[in-house]
Amino acid sequence: MAPFTVLTELIDRPSPGKHDENWMLDLELMHHYLSHTRYILTEHDNVDGLRIWQEEMPKVAFSSHYCMHALLGFSALHKATLQPSQARVLRTCAVDHLDKALVLYREHGQTSTAENANAKFVFTWLVALFAYAIPPSVPPIDAITELFLLVKGIDTVLGETWF
Fold first, then answer.
1. What is the dihedral of CA 79, 81, 86, 91, to 10 degrees?
2. In angstroms, what CA-CA distances link 111 with 108, 122, 138, 140?
3. Which GO terms describe its molecular function (predicted)?
């Protein structure tokens, strides 16, 4: 069926594609993040911490595509632990979001500015959480080495953006 165009004939519409298939899952993941995932990231009685994860993190994600993909990916990982029957699909979705986030970060996140400092910080933090949440597919010593390099990368971003 062709889209209804009487009121919108002057608007350019993208061709339907894979993006159209995933938007409902992405909405579910954002809902899951706001309803559940944010609680695992701080103490429940820490009102300021909860506010940061509930309000500030999504604001940053809405302003940065790479942060949004990282946030949705981490939410998918968390949801996979709570819904084992959907775990395979959710882990695949999580990795897909992380892949997209990393590509976008490499394209747009190289230079640190006052405008992207929060996004770079949030992104590195979410990637670190992601790394800790995924079981390593390499020997433990290699996984530890990779985590040390990741933490060093976080320190570099902090140095560029906050100090």
1. 80
2. 8, 15, 31, 33
3. DNA-binding transcription activator activity, RNA polymerase II-specific
Average pLDDT by stretches of 10, the chain with 163 residues: 51 54 90 88 74 87 94 94 94 91 82 82 84 62 55 54 48
Q: What's the longest Cα–Cα distance across the chain?
A: 62
Helix (H) and strand (E) counts in the chain = 8, 0
Please provide the distance, in angstroms rounded to a whole number, between the alpha carbons at the two ends of the chain.
Answer: 55
**What three-state secondary structure class fits 64?**
coil
Tell me the C-alpha distance between 49 and 22, whole Å.
Answer: 30
> In whole angstroms, what is the distance from residue 28 CA to residue 123 CA?
21
Rounded to whole angstroms, the Cα distance separating 73 from 29 reads: 8
Using the structure block, give the residue that is written with the tokens 């530890």.
144
Instruction: Give dist(CA 102, CA 58) in Å, integer.
Output: 18
**Hey, what are 22's tokens?**
């995933």
